[in-house]
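== Protein entry: sequence and backbone fold ==
=== Local backbone shapes as whole numbers ===
==== Amino acids and backbone structure tokens ====
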Amino acid sequence: MVDAYSKWIDIHVMNSTTSEATIAKLQQTFARHGLCDLIISDNGAALTSKEFADYVTSNGIEHRTSAPWHPASNSCPERAVQSFKEEKRVQERQQKQKNYHDKKSVNRQINLGQGVFARNFAIGSKIKWIPGDVIKQSGPLSFHIKLPDGRIIRRHIDHIRVRNFDCTNKENEEKCDNDSELFEPEITMPISTPETEHLFIYTEA
């Protein structure tokens, strides 16, 4: 619901958009802000029913509907709907980024002496990850890793996967030799859920 003068938006989450449910939400808004003189809405079934007509008439409210199949006739709430949906999408993207960062941050703790897999950037190599041990932190997010053949490489933390076991520990050597199950799970973005349906009514005080 959008107030024509102030452009104040009242948003109600509704599991049902029947006339009865719509009237209940209107009553909540009117209890906070008082009755309006005029309601302009689309031609939804809940807003063109006899029950809704009786409700607005009994409260001395004039009700007008926009031209069918012509959203521009009811442009104020249409703009409000678009603004709300855009803001909702922005918030969802920000939440996804936060969830991604939080989940990734849990696994970004790298310790010296820790057994890891480092991304292999060798041209032509079919091996994507190579085992090694962290021997030095060379920057806030970069580390020196010693490979089994004695070579030392430097990798950003984004190109490091922590092993489930510390391969510097003799007791874990047999487990560490089985490389197939030592990767951290790949981090995936959460799946977005369908948008909740909202009903907007344009009100003019």
Observations:
- Residues 179-200 have pLDDT under 50 and may be disordered.
- Residues 110-181 form a domain with the SH3 type barrels. fold (CATH 2.30.30.140).
